[in-house]
Protein backbone atom coordinates (compact mmCIF):
# COMPACT_ATOMS: atom_id res chain seq x y z
CA UNK A 1 0.00 0.00 0.00
CA UNK A 2 2.75 2.41 -0.91
CA UNK A 3 1.85 5.94 -1.89
CA UNK A 4 3.74 6.04 -5.21
CA UNK A 5 1.17 7.01 -7.84
CA UNK A 6 0.25 3.94 -9.91
CA UNK A 7 -1.22 3.58 -13.40
CA UNK A 8 -2.36 -0.02 -12.86
CA UNK A 9 -6.06 -0.14 -12.02
CA UNK A 10 -5.78 -3.74 -10.74
CA UNK A 11 -3.42 -2.59 -7.98
CA UNK A 12 -6.37 -0.79 -6.36
CA UNK A 13 -8.33 -4.01 -5.94
CA UNK A 14 -5.39 -5.74 -4.30
CA UNK A 15 -4.61 -2.73 -2.09
CA UNK A 16 -8.23 -2.69 -0.90
CA UNK A 17 -8.02 -6.40 -0.16
CA UNK A 18 -4.82 -5.87 1.90
CA UNK A 19 -6.55 -3.01 3.74
CA UNK A 20 -9.50 -5.29 4.59
CA UNK A 21 -7.20 -7.79 6.25
CA UNK A 22 -5.05 -5.28 8.13
CA UNK A 23 -7.95 -3.17 9.43
CA UNK A 24 -10.38 -6.08 10.03
CA UNK A 25 -13.04 -4.32 7.97
CA UNK A 26 -15.69 -5.44 5.49
CA UNK A 27 -16.29 -4.22 1.96
CA UNK A 28 -19.40 -2.43 3.24
CA UNK A 29 -17.29 -0.56 5.81
CA UNK A 30 -14.87 0.64 3.14
CA UNK A 31 -17.73 1.62 0.84
CA UNK A 32 -19.18 3.83 3.58
CA UNK A 33 -15.77 5.41 4.17
CA UNK A 34 -15.41 6.20 0.46
CA UNK A 35 -18.98 7.52 0.08
CA UNK A 36 -18.30 11.06 1.30
CA UNK A 37 -21.70 12.51 0.44
CA UNK A 38 -23.76 9.55 1.71
CA UNK A 39 -25.66 9.19 -1.55
CA UNK A 40 -25.12 5.38 -1.72
CA UNK A 41 -22.80 5.64 -4.75
CA UNK A 42 -19.13 6.42 -5.20
CA UNK A 43 -17.95 8.85 -7.88
CA UNK A 44 -14.51 8.80 -9.49
CA UNK A 45 -13.49 11.81 -7.40
CA UNK A 46 -14.74 10.21 -4.16
CA UNK A 47 -12.95 6.98 -5.05
CA UNK A 48 -9.58 8.65 -5.65
CA UNK A 49 -9.72 11.08 -2.69
CA UNK A 50 -10.99 8.30 -0.40
CA UNK A 51 -8.18 5.94 -1.35
CA UNK A 52 -5.67 8.67 -0.47
CA UNK A 53 -7.47 9.67 2.75
CA UNK A 54 -7.56 6.07 4.00
CA UNK A 55 -3.96 5.49 2.83
CA UNK A 56 -5.15 2.58 0.69
CA UNK A 57 -3.68 3.57 -2.67
CA UNK A 58 -2.45 6.52 -4.73
CA UNK A 59 -3.68 6.10 -8.29
CA UNK A 60 -3.68 8.24 -11.40
CA UNK A 61 -7.04 9.64 -12.47
CA UNK A 62 -6.94 7.41 -15.56
CA UNK A 63 -6.43 4.25 -13.49
CA UNK A 64 -9.32 5.11 -11.16
CA UNK A 65 -11.52 6.03 -14.12
CA UNK A 66 -10.83 2.67 -15.82
CA UNK A 67 -11.63 0.75 -12.63
CA UNK A 68 -14.89 2.64 -12.17
CA UNK A 69 -15.87 1.83 -15.77
CA UNK A 70 -15.13 -1.86 -15.15
CA UNK A 71 -17.20 -2.00 -11.97
CA UNK A 72 -19.98 0.27 -13.25
CA UNK A 73 -22.36 -2.40 -14.51
CA UNK A 74 -25.33 -0.08 -15.13
CA UNK A 75 -23.27 2.60 -16.88
CA UNK A 76 -24.28 5.55 -14.68
CA UNK A 77 -20.68 6.65 -14.09
CA UNK A 78 -20.70 5.75 -10.38
CA UNK A 79 -20.33 2.61 -8.26
CA UNK A 80 -23.09 1.23 -6.03
CA UNK A 81 -22.46 -1.03 -3.03
CA UNK A 82 -23.66 -4.03 -5.06
CA UNK A 83 -21.26 -3.21 -7.89
CA UNK A 84 -18.43 -2.65 -5.40
CA UNK A 85 -19.01 -6.04 -3.74
CA UNK A 86 -19.12 -7.79 -7.12
CA UNK A 87 -15.45 -6.92 -7.63
CA UNK A 88 -14.50 -9.59 -5.07
CA UNK A 89 -15.30 -13.25 -4.56
CA UNK A 90 -16.31 -14.86 -1.30
CA UNK A 91 -12.66 -15.02 -0.22
CA UNK A 92 -12.24 -11.26 -0.78
CA UNK A 93 -10.00 -11.89 -3.76
CA UNK A 94 -10.39 -9.64 -6.84
CA UNK A 95 -13.01 -11.17 -9.10
CA UNK A 96 -12.65 -8.66 -11.95
CA UNK A 97 -9.67 -7.73 -14.07
CA UNK A 98 -9.34 -4.26 -15.58
CA UNK A 99 -8.20 -4.28 -19.22
CA UNK A 100 -6.96 -0.73 -19.96
CA UNK A 101 -6.93 -1.42 -23.69
CA UNK A 102 -10.73 -1.71 -23.52
CA UNK A 103 -10.95 1.97 -22.73
CA UNK A 104 -9.94 3.83 -25.85
CA UNK A 105 -9.51 7.55 -25.90
CA UNK A 106 -12.61 9.22 -27.31
CA UNK A 107 -12.37 11.42 -30.34
CA UNK A 108 -11.89 15.12 -29.59
CA UNK A 109 -15.45 15.87 -30.69
CA UNK A 110 -16.81 13.25 -28.27
CA UNK A 111 -14.68 14.15 -25.25
CA UNK A 112 -16.49 14.71 -22.00
CA UNK A 113 -14.99 17.29 -19.66
CA UNK A 114 -15.28 16.73 -15.92
CA UNK A 115 -14.18 19.63 -13.73
CA UNK A 116 -14.63 19.93 -9.98
CA UNK A 117 -14.35 23.18 -8.06
CA UNK A 118 -14.82 24.47 -4.55
CA UNK A 119 -17.47 26.98 -3.49
CA UNK A 120 -15.27 29.85 -4.71
CA UNK A 121 -15.02 28.35 -8.20
CA UNK A 122 -11.35 27.35 -7.84
CA UNK A 123 -10.61 24.31 -9.97
CA UNK A 124 -9.77 21.22 -7.90
CA UNK A 125 -9.64 18.58 -10.62
CA UNK A 126 -9.43 18.76 -14.40
CA UNK A 127 -10.00 15.61 -16.45
CA UNK A 128 -8.20 14.59 -19.63
CA UNK A 129 -11.42 15.35 -21.51
CA UNK A 130 -11.37 18.87 -20.10
CA UNK A 131 -7.84 19.33 -21.43
CA UNK A 132 -8.94 18.16 -24.86
CA UNK A 133 -11.95 20.48 -24.91
CA UNK A 134 -10.54 23.65 -23.35
CA UNK A 135 -6.89 23.43 -24.40
CA UNK A 136 -5.33 23.77 -20.94
CA UNK A 137 -3.26 21.19 -19.11
CA UNK A 138 -4.21 20.12 -15.61
CA UNK A 139 -1.03 21.77 -14.30
CA UNK A 140 -2.13 25.12 -15.74
CA UNK A 141 -5.56 24.97 -14.17
CA UNK A 142 -5.79 23.09 -10.86
CA UNK A 143 -5.53 25.52 -7.95
CA UNK A 144 -4.69 28.38 -10.34
CA UNK A 145 -7.85 29.12 -12.31
CA UNK A 146 -11.58 29.46 -11.71
CA UNK A 147 -14.29 27.75 -13.69
CA UNK A 148 -15.63 31.20 -14.60
CA UNK A 149 -12.63 31.65 -16.89
CA UNK A 150 -13.97 28.98 -19.25
CA UNK A 151 -17.11 31.03 -20.02
CA UNK A 152 -17.65 34.44 -21.65
CA UNK A 153 -17.72 37.09 -18.94
CA UNK A 154 -21.23 38.24 -19.79
CA UNK A 155 -22.50 34.65 -19.46
CA UNK A 156 -20.88 34.51 -16.02
CA UNK A 157 -22.60 37.74 -14.94
CA UNK A 158 -25.98 36.85 -16.42
CA UNK A 159 -26.39 33.15 -15.76
CA UNK A 160 -23.83 31.27 -13.68
CA UNK A 161 -25.21 32.30 -10.28
CA UNK A 162 -28.66 30.98 -11.27
CA UNK A 163 -27.16 27.74 -12.60
CA UNK A 164 -25.32 27.12 -9.35
CA UNK A 165 -28.39 27.97 -7.30
CA UNK A 166 -30.46 25.50 -9.32
CA UNK A 167 -27.81 22.79 -8.88
CA UNK A 168 -27.69 23.37 -5.12
CA UNK A 169 -31.45 23.54 -4.58
CA UNK A 170 -32.62 20.93 -7.08
CA UNK A 171 -29.61 18.61 -7.19
CA UNK A 172 -28.69 19.29 -10.81
CA UNK A 173 -28.61 21.92 -13.54
CA UNK A 174 -28.55 20.94 -17.22
CA UNK A 175 -28.51 23.13 -20.29
CA UNK A 176 -26.66 24.34 -23.35
CA UNK A 177 -24.09 27.10 -23.29
CA UNK A 178 -21.02 28.42 -25.03
CA UNK A 179 -17.56 28.12 -23.49
CA UNK A 180 -14.23 29.72 -24.39
CA UNK A 181 -11.16 27.74 -25.51
CA UNK A 182 -7.68 28.72 -24.38
CA UNK A 183 -7.09 30.20 -27.84
CA UNK A 184 -10.20 32.40 -27.53
CA UNK A 185 -12.50 30.44 -29.85
CA UNK A 186 -16.03 29.60 -28.76
CA UNK A 187 -17.13 26.05 -27.86
CA UNK A 188 -20.81 25.00 -28.18
CA UNK A 189 -21.59 22.49 -25.45
CA UNK A 190 -23.97 20.96 -22.96
CA UNK A 191 -23.32 21.56 -19.27
CA UNK A 192 -24.43 19.53 -16.30
CA UNK A 193 -23.70 20.92 -12.83
CA UNK A 194 -24.20 18.93 -9.63
CA UNK A 195 -23.28 19.87 -6.06
CA UNK A 196 -20.54 18.06 -4.12
CA UNK A 197 -21.12 17.25 -0.46
CA UNK A 198 -18.82 16.02 2.26
CA UNK A 199 -19.09 15.25 5.94
CA UNK A 200 -17.68 18.15 7.94
CA UNK A 201 -17.74 17.71 11.72
CA UNK A 202 -20.31 14.99 11.28
CA UNK A 203 -22.63 17.13 9.15
CA UNK A 204 -23.30 16.89 5.42
CA UNK A 205 -22.05 20.13 3.90
CA UNK A 206 -21.75 21.34 0.32
CA UNK A 207 -18.11 21.92 -0.56
CA UNK A 208 -18.24 22.56 -4.29
CA UNK A 209 -19.58 21.54 -7.69
CA UNK A 210 -18.93 19.06 -10.48
CA UNK A 211 -19.36 20.29 -14.04
CA UNK A 212 -19.67 17.82 -16.93
CA UNK A 213 -19.38 19.23 -20.44
CA UNK A 214 -19.82 17.64 -23.86
CA UNK A 215 -19.13 19.44 -27.14
CA UNK A 216 -22.08 19.87 -29.50
CA UNK A 217 -22.07 19.98 -33.27
CA UNK A 218 -23.74 23.40 -33.37
CA UNK A 219 -22.96 27.02 -34.05
CA UNK A 220 -21.52 28.56 -30.82
CA UNK A 221 -23.84 31.54 -31.22
CA UNK A 222 -26.81 29.16 -31.24
CA UNK A 223 -25.87 27.77 -27.81
CA UNK A 224 -24.96 31.16 -26.34
CA UNK A 225 -27.49 31.78 -23.51
CA UNK A 226 -29.93 34.64 -24.05
CA UNK A 227 -28.63 37.73 -22.31
CA UNK A 228 -30.86 39.47 -19.73
CA UNK A 229 -31.32 43.22 -20.25
CA UNK A 230 -29.45 44.05 -17.07
CA UNK A 231 -26.17 42.38 -18.06
CA UNK A 232 -24.85 45.46 -19.92
CA UNK A 233 -25.34 47.91 -17.02
CA UNK A 234 -24.04 45.28 -14.59
CA UNK A 235 -20.95 44.86 -16.76
CA UNK A 236 -20.12 48.55 -16.47
CA UNK A 237 -20.87 48.55 -12.75
CA UNK A 238 -18.41 45.66 -12.39
CA UNK A 239 -15.69 47.27 -14.52
CA UNK A 240 -15.88 50.65 -12.77
CA UNK A 241 -16.74 49.33 -9.26
CA UNK A 242 -19.44 51.94 -9.14
CA UNK A 243 -20.73 51.16 -5.60
CA UNK A 244 -17.53 52.55 -4.11
CA UNK A 245 -18.23 56.00 -5.61
CA UNK A 246 -20.46 56.66 -2.59
CA UNK A 247 -17.17 57.35 -0.80
CA UNK A 248 -16.87 60.49 -2.98
CA UNK A 249 -20.52 61.48 -3.13
CA UNK A 250 -21.06 61.73 0.63
CA UNK A 251 -18.14 64.12 1.37
CA UNK A 252 -19.07 66.34 -1.62
CA UNK A 253 -22.72 66.61 -0.56
CA UNK A 254 -21.86 67.05 3.12
CA UNK A 255 -19.28 69.78 2.44
CA UNK A 256 -21.71 71.64 0.15
CA UNK A 257 -24.55 71.57 2.68
CA UNK A 258 -22.18 72.51 5.53
CA UNK A 259 -20.84 75.52 3.58
CA UNK A 260 -24.27 76.86 2.62
CA UNK A 261 -25.76 76.34 6.10
CA UNK A 262 -23.41 78.60 7.99
CA UNK A 263 -20.08 76.83 7.63
CA UNK A 264 -18.77 79.66 5.44
CA UNK A 265 -19.87 83.19 6.35
CA UNK A 266 -21.63 85.32 3.76
CA UNK A 267 -22.55 82.33 1.61
CA UNK A 268 -26.22 81.49 1.11
CA UNK A 269 -28.36 79.14 -0.95
CA UNK A 270 -30.35 82.03 -2.40
CA UNK A 271 -27.51 84.08 -3.84
CA UNK A 272 -24.51 81.79 -4.20
CA UNK A 273 -25.71 78.30 -5.08
CA UNK A 274 -25.63 77.36 -8.77
CA UNK A 275 -26.98 74.08 -10.15
CA UNK A 276 -24.55 74.03 -13.13
CA UNK A 277 -21.71 74.59 -10.65
CA UNK A 278 -22.95 71.69 -8.50
CA UNK A 279 -23.27 69.44 -11.56
CA UNK A 280 -19.68 70.13 -12.64
CA UNK A 281 -18.29 69.53 -9.15
CA UNK A 282 -20.30 66.33 -8.70
CA UNK A 283 -19.43 65.01 -12.18
CA UNK A 284 -15.76 65.93 -11.80
CA UNK A 285 -15.48 64.23 -8.41
CA UNK A 286 -17.31 61.13 -9.63
CA UNK A 287 -15.23 60.66 -12.80
CA UNK A 288 -12.01 61.33 -10.89
CA UNK A 289 -12.96 58.55 -8.48
CA UNK A 290 -13.89 56.18 -11.34
CA UNK A 291 -10.57 56.82 -13.05
CA UNK A 292 -8.78 55.98 -9.79
CA UNK A 293 -10.77 52.72 -9.46
CA UNK A 294 -9.89 51.70 -12.99
CA UNK A 295 -6.21 52.64 -12.81
CA UNK A 296 -5.95 50.72 -9.53
CA UNK A 297 -7.35 47.63 -11.25
CA UNK A 298 -5.04 48.10 -14.22
CA UNK A 299 -1.82 48.44 -12.22
CA UNK A 300 -2.76 45.66 -9.78
CA UNK A 301 -3.36 43.38 -12.76
CA UNK A 302 -0.04 44.39 -14.35
CA UNK A 303 1.76 43.64 -11.09
CA UNK A 304 0.11 40.21 -10.86
CA UNK A 305 -1.68 41.10 -7.61
CA UNK A 306 -5.20 40.22 -8.77
CA UNK A 307 -4.13 37.03 -10.56
CA UNK A 308 -2.52 35.80 -7.34
CA UNK A 309 -5.71 36.42 -5.38
CA UNK A 310 -7.36 33.02 -5.58
CA UNK A 311 -9.20 33.04 -2.25
CA UNK A 312 -12.46 34.83 -3.03
CA UNK A 313 -14.40 35.84 -6.08
CA UNK A 314 -15.93 39.07 -4.87
CA UNK A 315 -16.18 42.73 -5.82
CA UNK A 316 -14.49 43.35 -2.47
CA UNK A 317 -11.47 41.18 -3.18
CA UNK A 318 -9.07 40.98 -6.10
CA UNK A 319 -10.38 44.10 -7.85
CA UNK A 320 -13.22 44.08 -10.34
CA UNK A 321 -12.09 40.83 -12.05
CA UNK A 322 -13.15 42.48 -15.32
CA UNK A 323 -9.99 41.43 -17.19
CA UNK A 324 -10.15 37.91 -15.75
CA UNK A 325 -13.74 37.58 -16.94
CA UNK A 326 -12.90 38.94 -20.37
CA UNK A 327 -15.24 41.91 -19.98
CA UNK A 328 -12.49 44.28 -21.08
CA UNK A 329 -8.86 44.08 -22.20
CA UNK A 330 -5.87 45.50 -20.34
CA UNK A 331 -5.51 48.22 -22.96
CA UNK A 332 -9.24 48.90 -22.88
CA UNK A 333 -9.16 49.25 -19.10
CA UNK A 334 -6.30 51.75 -19.20
CA UNK A 335 -8.01 53.73 -21.97
CA UNK A 336 -11.26 53.82 -19.98
CA UNK A 337 -9.43 55.17 -16.93
CA UNK A 338 -7.82 57.83 -19.11
CA UNK A 339 -11.24 58.82 -20.54
CA UNK A 340 -12.67 59.32 -17.06
CA UNK A 341 -9.60 61.33 -16.09
CA UNK A 342 -10.07 63.57 -19.15
CA UNK A 343 -13.75 64.14 -18.25
CA UNK A 344 -12.70 65.16 -14.73
CA UNK A 345 -10.04 67.48 -16.22
CA UNK A 346 -12.64 69.04 -18.53
CA UNK A 347 -14.89 69.69 -15.52
CA UNK A 348 -11.98 71.31 -13.71
CA UNK A 349 -11.13 73.67 -16.56
CA UNK A 350 -14.80 74.54 -16.99
CA UNK A 351 -15.03 75.42 -13.29
CA UNK A 352 -11.93 77.60 -13.48
CA UNK A 353 -12.83 79.36 -16.72
CA UNK A 354 -16.57 79.63 -16.04
CA UNK A 355 -18.46 82.48 -14.34
CA UNK A 356 -17.93 81.10 -10.84
CA UNK A 357 -15.70 81.89 -7.89
CA UNK A 358 -12.81 79.36 -8.21
CA UNK A 359 -9.55 80.22 -9.97
CA UNK A 360 -6.56 78.13 -10.94
CA UNK A 361 -5.91 77.27 -7.28
CA UNK A 362 -8.70 74.70 -7.71
CA UNK A 363 -6.15 72.56 -9.56
CA UNK A 364 -4.21 72.18 -6.30
CA UNK A 365 -7.06 70.08 -4.90
CA UNK A 366 -7.76 68.37 -8.23
CA UNK A 367 -4.09 67.46 -8.70
CA UNK A 368 -3.80 66.05 -5.20
CA UNK A 369 -6.87 63.89 -5.86
CA UNK A 370 -5.76 62.75 -9.32
CA UNK A 371 -2.16 61.99 -8.39
CA UNK A 372 -3.16 60.30 -5.14
CA UNK A 373 -5.69 58.09 -6.92
CA UNK A 374 -3.32 57.22 -9.78
CA UNK A 375 -0.24 56.49 -7.69
CA UNK A 376 -2.21 54.50 -5.12
CA UNK A 377 -1.17 51.40 -7.12
CA UNK A 378 0.86 52.86 -10.03
CA UNK A 379 4.66 52.77 -9.96
CA UNK A 380 6.93 54.20 -8.83
CA UNK A 381 5.08 55.33 -5.69
CA UNK A 382 2.64 52.42 -5.20
CA UNK A 383 1.25 54.01 -2.05
CA UNK A 384 -0.91 50.97 -1.31
CA UNK A 385 2.22 48.85 -0.87
CA UNK A 386 3.98 51.15 1.60
CA UNK A 387 2.81 49.94 5.00
CA UNK A 388 0.26 52.61 5.85
CA UNK A 389 0.73 55.30 3.23
CA UNK A 390 -2.13 53.79 1.21
CA UNK A 391 -4.55 53.88 4.13
CA UNK A 392 -3.43 57.40 5.08
CA UNK A 393 -3.84 58.68 1.51
CA UNK A 394 -7.36 57.21 1.22
CA UNK A 395 -8.37 58.70 4.57
CA UNK A 396 -7.20 62.15 3.49
CA UNK A 397 -8.36 62.08 -0.15
CA UNK A 398 -11.86 60.82 0.63
CA UNK A 399 -12.25 62.95 3.73
CA UNK A 400 -10.53 66.26 4.58
CA UNK A 401 -9.01 66.97 1.14
CA UNK A 402 -12.32 66.28 -0.62
CA UNK A 403 -14.43 68.39 1.76
CA UNK A 404 -11.94 71.27 1.69
CA UNK A 405 -11.68 71.11 -2.12
CA UNK A 406 -15.46 71.00 -2.49
CA UNK A 407 -15.93 74.07 -0.30
CA UNK A 408 -13.28 75.92 -2.31
CA UNK A 409 -14.96 74.95 -5.60
CA UNK A 410 -18.28 76.37 -4.36
CA UNK A 411 -17.03 79.44 -2.50
CA UNK A 412 -13.45 80.23 -3.53
CA UNK A 413 -12.51 80.05 0.16
CA UNK A 414 -9.64 77.95 1.54
CA UNK A 415 -11.16 76.81 4.84
CA UNK A 416 -9.26 74.71 7.38
CA UNK A 417 -12.59 74.13 9.12
CA UNK A 418 -13.75 72.46 5.90
CA UNK A 419 -10.66 70.25 6.12
CA UNK A 420 -11.49 69.20 9.68
CA UNK A 421 -15.14 68.35 9.07
CA UNK A 422 -14.02 65.73 6.54
CA UNK A 423 -12.23 63.66 9.17
CA UNK A 424 -15.20 61.46 10.25
CA UNK A 425 -16.13 60.48 6.69
CA UNK A 426 -12.46 59.96 5.84
CA UNK A 427 -12.23 57.48 8.72
CA UNK A 428 -15.39 55.67 7.66
CA UNK A 429 -14.01 55.39 4.11
CA UNK A 430 -10.67 54.10 5.40
CA UNK A 431 -12.64 51.46 7.30
CA UNK A 432 -14.09 50.32 3.94
CA UNK A 433 -10.57 49.97 2.52
CA UNK A 434 -9.34 48.30 5.70
CA UNK A 435 -11.92 45.54 5.79
CA UNK A 436 -11.61 44.94 2.04
CA UNK A 437 -7.90 44.25 2.53
CA UNK A 438 -8.61 41.20 4.71
CA UNK A 439 -9.44 38.69 1.94
CA UNK A 440 -6.68 40.17 -0.25
CA UNK A 441 -3.92 39.85 2.35
CA UNK A 442 -2.39 36.42 1.45
CA UNK A 443 -2.07 37.26 -2.26
CA UNK A 444 -0.96 40.82 -1.51
CA UNK A 445 1.88 39.53 0.67
CA UNK A 446 2.83 37.03 -2.04
CA UNK A 447 3.19 39.84 -4.60
CA UNK A 448 4.87 42.36 -2.29
CA UNK A 449 1.85 44.60 -1.70
CA UNK A 450 2.39 45.21 2.01
CA UNK A 451 -0.42 47.40 3.35
CA UNK A 452 -1.12 47.80 7.05
CA UNK A 453 -3.45 44.80 7.30
CA UNK A 454 -0.76 42.64 5.70
CA UNK A 455 1.88 44.14 8.02
CA UNK A 456 -0.17 43.55 11.16
CA UNK A 457 -1.68 40.22 10.15
CA UNK A 458 -5.43 39.77 9.79
CA UNK A 459 -5.94 38.72 13.41
CA UNK A 460 -4.26 41.81 14.84
CA UNK A 461 -5.70 44.06 12.11
CA UNK A 462 -9.20 43.47 13.46
CA UNK A 463 -8.38 46.03 16.15
CA UNK A 464 -7.48 48.56 13.45
CA UNK A 465 -11.03 48.38 12.10
CA UNK A 466 -12.39 48.95 15.61
CA UNK A 467 -10.10 51.96 16.08
CA UNK A 468 -11.11 53.52 12.75
CA UNK A 469 -14.83 53.16 13.50
CA UNK A 470 -14.41 54.44 17.06
CA UNK A 471 -12.35 57.44 15.93
CA UNK A 472 -15.00 58.33 13.33
CA UNK A 473 -17.58 58.77 16.10
CA UNK A 474 -15.17 60.41 18.55
CA UNK A 475 -14.02 62.95 15.95
CA UNK A 476 -17.65 63.83 15.21
CA UNK A 477 -18.27 64.56 18.87
CA UNK A 478 -15.09 66.66 19.09
CA UNK A 479 -16.10 68.67 16.01
CA UNK A 480 -19.44 69.47 17.67
CA UNK A 481 -17.67 70.44 20.89
CA UNK A 482 -15.43 72.78 18.88
CA UNK A 483 -18.57 74.24 17.23
CA UNK A 484 -17.42 73.25 13.75
CA UNK A 485 -20.54 71.15 13.32
CA UNK A 486 -23.98 71.65 14.85
CA UNK A 487 -25.20 69.45 17.67
CA UNK A 488 -27.82 68.03 15.32
CA UNK A 489 -25.05 66.18 13.48
CA UNK A 490 -24.79 63.91 16.53
CA UNK A 491 -27.76 62.09 15.06
CA UNK A 492 -24.89 60.09 13.53
CA UNK A 493 -24.48 58.36 16.91
CA UNK A 494 -27.64 56.30 16.35
CA UNK A 495 -25.56 54.11 14.03
CA UNK A 496 -23.21 53.05 16.85
CA UNK A 497 -25.07 49.76 17.58
CA UNK A 498 -24.86 48.88 13.88
CA UNK A 499 -21.16 49.72 13.79
CA UNK A 500 -20.63 47.64 16.94
CA UNK A 501 -22.31 44.68 15.25
CA UNK A 502 -20.01 45.04 12.24
CA UNK A 503 -16.95 45.06 14.51
CA UNK A 504 -18.24 41.91 16.21
CA UNK A 505 -18.84 40.19 12.86
CA UNK A 506 -15.32 41.07 11.68
CA UNK A 507 -13.83 39.53 14.81
CA UNK A 508 -15.81 36.35 14.10
CA UNK A 509 -15.53 36.13 10.30
CA UNK A 510 -12.14 37.66 9.53
CA UNK A 511 -10.91 34.41 7.92
CA UNK A 512 -14.24 33.37 6.39
CA UNK A 513 -16.18 34.10 3.22
CA UNK A 514 -19.00 35.23 5.52
CA UNK A 515 -17.01 38.46 5.88
CA UNK A 516 -18.60 39.65 2.61
CA UNK A 517 -21.72 40.77 4.49
CA UNK A 518 -19.60 43.02 6.71
CA UNK A 519 -17.75 44.37 3.64
CA UNK A 520 -21.06 45.40 2.09
CA UNK A 521 -22.45 46.84 5.30
CA UNK A 522 -19.32 48.92 5.92
CA UNK A 523 -19.94 50.66 2.59
CA UNK A 524 -23.57 51.16 3.64
CA UNK A 525 -22.48 52.50 7.05
CA UNK A 526 -20.32 55.16 5.38
CA UNK A 527 -23.24 56.18 3.15
CA UNK A 528 -25.73 56.33 6.02
CA UNK A 529 -23.23 58.25 8.16
CA UNK A 530 -22.86 60.79 5.36
CA UNK A 531 -26.62 61.18 4.98
CA UNK A 532 -27.09 61.64 8.72
CA UNK A 533 -24.37 64.28 8.84
CA UNK A 534 -26.05 66.11 5.95
CA UNK A 535 -29.41 65.94 7.73
CA UNK A 536 -27.79 67.16 10.94
CA UNK A 537 -26.12 70.12 9.25
CA UNK A 538 -29.52 71.14 7.86
CA UNK A 539 -30.74 71.53 11.49
CA UNK A 540 -34.14 70.05 10.78
CA UNK A 541 -34.52 68.55 14.24
Structure notes:
The chain has 541 residues and is an alpha+beta fold. Helix content is 55%, strand content 9%. The protein has helices at residues 9-23, 27-34, 44-53, 61-71, 81-85, 128-134, 138-141, 153-170, 220-223, 231-240, 246-263, 269-272, 275-302, 305-308, 330-353, 362-374, 389-397, 400-411, 416-420, 423-446, 452-456, 458-481, 496-509, 516-537, and strands at 41-42, 79-80, 112-118, 123-126, 173-180, 186-200, 203-215. The strands form two sheets. A five-stranded antiparallel beta sheet has the order 4-3-7-6-5. A two-stranded antiparallel sheet has the order 1-2. The protein is elongated and about 100 Å long. The N and C termini lie far apart (78 Å).
Radius of gyration: 29 Å
Strand order of the largest sheet: 4-3-7-6-5
Distance between the termini: 78 Å
Give the proportion of residues in helices.
55-70%
Mean pLDDT: 87
Class computed from helices, strands and strand pairing:
alpha+beta
Assess the beta-strand content as a share of residues. Answer: 5-15%
Shape: elongated
Query: Biggest β-sheet, characterized?
Result: 5 strands, antiparallel
How would you sum up this structure in a few lines?
By secondary structure, the chain is α+β, with helices and mostly antiparallel strands. The chain has helices at 9-23, 27-34, 44-53, 61-71, 81-85, 128-134, 138-141, 153-170, 220-223, 231-240, 246-263, 269-272, 275-302, 305-308, 330-353, 362-374, 389-397, 400-411, 416-420, 423-446, 452-456, 458-481, 496-509, 516-537, and strands at residues 41-42, 79-80, 112-118, 123-126, 173-180, 186-200, 203-215. 55% of the residues lie in helices and 9% in strands.
Amino acid sequence: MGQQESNNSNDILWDIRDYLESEKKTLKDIFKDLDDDDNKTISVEEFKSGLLKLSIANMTEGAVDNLVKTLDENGDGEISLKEFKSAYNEDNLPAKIVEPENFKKPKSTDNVSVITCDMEGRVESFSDGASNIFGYTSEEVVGKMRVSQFSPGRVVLGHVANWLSTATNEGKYEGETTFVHKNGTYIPATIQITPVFKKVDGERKQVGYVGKTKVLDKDPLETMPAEPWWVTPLTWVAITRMPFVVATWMPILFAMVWAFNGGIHDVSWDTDFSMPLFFLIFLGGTTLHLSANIFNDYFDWQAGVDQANNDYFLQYSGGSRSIELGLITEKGLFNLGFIFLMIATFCGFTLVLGPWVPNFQLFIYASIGALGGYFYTAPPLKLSSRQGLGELSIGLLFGPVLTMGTVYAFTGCHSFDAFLIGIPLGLFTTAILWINEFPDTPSDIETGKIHLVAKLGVKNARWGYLILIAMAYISSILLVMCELMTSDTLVLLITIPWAGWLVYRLFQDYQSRDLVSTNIQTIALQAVAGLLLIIGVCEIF
